[in-house]
Amino acid sequence: MTGLPCSGKTTIVKDLQKDIPNLAMLDGDELREWFSPKDFSKAGRDEHNKKVAHLAKLLLKHGVPSAVSLVSPYLENRESARKIIDAGDQFAECYVKCSLEKCEERDVKGMYAKARKGEIKGFTGIDDPYEAPEKADLIIDTEHDSLSESANKVKDFLKGRNLL
């Protein structure tokens, strides 16, 4: 799942975990703590995305389904992840679409406010770009759909691919 910070990626995955046994959540914020701490440069983001993709591939190899909740702001990173994981229909790019304004409203940590004040540099959506997917396998509009509607769209998509 890709989208702006606070778009709802992690919230959707947590909801999916209620109905999908053994679903591993690879959350970008949590993984960053021990994979790529504090490096939000372009090169750092590229490296972090590759590490998460390799982890997802390893889990899949061992039969563990995973949902990756990662901003992954660059098109090239998401295409790289698709190639690294190399799992055909078992890989799906899900764009969690939400306006910058709505994401800022949802931001309980105050990250957007800090970024606007210049306290956080290279923050996606403020002073670092977010490249929305051009060919997402699934688009979830969390600005207009409820959590249950969003999770149900993901489950319907997975059922359509015979993954659920």
From TrEMBL:
Catalyzes the synthesis of activated sulfate. Pathway: Sulfur metabolism; hydrogen sulfide biosynthesis; sulfite from sulfate: step 2/3. GO terms for molecular function: adenylylsulfate kinase activity; ATP binding; sulfate adenylyltransferase (ATP) activity. This is Adenylyl-sulfate kinase. One of its GO terms (cellular component) is cytoplasm. Pfam families: APS_kinase (PF01583). Residues 1-141 form the APS kinase domain. GO terms for biological process: hydrogen sulfide biosynthetic process; sulfate assimilation via adenylyl sulfate reduction; sulfate assimilation, phosphoadenylyl sulfate reduction by phosphoadenylyl-sulfate reductase (thioredoxin). It catalyses: adenosine 5'-phosphosulfate + ATP = 3'-phosphoadenylyl sulfate + ADP + H(+). PANTHER family: SULFATE ADENYLYLTRANSFERASE. InterPro entries: APS, APS_kinase_dom, P-loop_NTPase, Sulf_AdTrans/APS_kinase. Keywords: ATP-binding, Kinase, Nucleotide-binding, Transferase. The keyword ATP-binding applies. Belongs to the APS kinase family. It comes from Candidatus Nitrosopumilus sediminis. Its EC number is 2.7.1.25.
